[in-house]
Write a structure and sequence with these properties.
This protein has 10 helices and no strands. With 306 residues, it is mainly α. The longest helix has 61 residues.
Length: 306
């Protein structure tokens, strides 16, 4: 028997090692892909939680000092206040919507549902007044025929409405979870900050650590800007709602605050209210309120740079 060529043995060993390394790398990538797929739905929630924790941490420090160093109590109070601001108006609006839907369903089943005739002021609405008045009058005269006439549009609107409700509900629940996680992060803020700086230092040296501080300062500045603008828009909107004597002005103001924090325009709430005001108020006050609602909704273009 002749000894095997050393170079051949080295080649075989290299092939085996390369194959083993390729399999290991492939398994690592596969495991990483599975992990990313599992945590993907929670990335946004955790990111918002980190933003909330960084933005509210100065308040947490002040409240902890007032509570004589009780960090957990401070974080719990902030979380409870945040959840109350978010969930109480949502609960009220949901209950009102369910009651309204039940009354409509009962009226349709029993044939007692009727639409009151529109006021002549409706025809004076800008742009859409005449068409709305005609359709409203048809519905007041023969509701069943009107529903059949616009069945396709109603189906499309119902689908869009259900999709919007589901998306909004999912967003509210996700934001509520972010508030809770943000409270937990505030309790462990020092450890998280040191870990974040350590990661930055390993990746980029001293510049990486400074970049971590820059990220914290940027998040706080943006959070202050977003919350500040949201509070100003909500205050302005609440003043308009109270002056116009809008029913449930407090609930609408709370919804506007939530939407403004979520970077959604207050016009989504103020717009339908302004249209309703045209049917119950004189044209001049209604027009002034509409213009006011537009100014409040687009005021963020001026407030954010400030």
């Amino acid at each position: 028997m002749s000894d095997q060529n050393p170079s051949s043995m080295q080649e075989q060993s290299f092939v085996r090692n390369s194959l083993a390394a390729a399999i290991q790398i492939g398994l690592v990538f596969l495991l990483a892909a599975w992990c990313i797929r599992i945590i993907a739905p929670f990335i946004g929630v955790v990111a918002w939680a980190a933003i909330i924790a960084v933005g509210l941490y100065p308040l947490h420090v002040k409240l902890t000092g007032a509570l004589k160093g009780r960090e957990k109590w401070s974080a719990a109070i902030i979380v409870l206040i945040g959840l109350s601001i978010l969930l109480v108006p949502t609960w009220e609006l949901t209950g009102s919507s369910i009651d309204t839907a039940q009354r409509l369903a009962t009226g349709l089943e029993e044939g007692t549902l009727s639409v009151p005739p529109p006021s002549d002021k409706v025809a004076e609405w800008p742009l859409i007044g005449k068409e709305v008045h005609e359709t409203w009058s048809e519905a007041a005269t023969n509701l069943e025929a009107t529903l059949q006439k616009y069945s396709d549009q109603l189906k499309a609107f119902s689908g869009w409405l259900l999709s919007s409700i589901a998306s909004t509900a999912s967003g509210i629940l996700g934001f509520a979870l972010s508030i809770v996680i943000g409270g937990v992060l505030m309790i462990n803020a020092d450890k998280s900050y040191q870990a974040f700086r350590g990661i930055g230092h390993r990746l980029g040296g001293e510049r990486g650590a400074d970049f971590a501080d820059l990220c914290v300062a940027t998040i706080r500045s943006v959070a202050k800007g977003v919350l500040g603008v949201a509070l100003i828009q909500t205050l302005l909107a609440a003043i308009g709602l109270i002056v116009m004597d809008i029913p449930g002005a407090g609930i609408w103001a709370a919804i506007i605050l939530i939407m403004a924090i979520m970077q959604l325009p207050p016009l989504l709430v103020l717009g339908p209210i302004a249209i309703w005001v045209f049917s119950v108020a004189e044209p001049i006050p209604a027009t002034i309120f509409l213009v006011y609602a537009l100014l409040v909704s687009f005021s963020d273009a001026v407030l954010k740079p400030m």
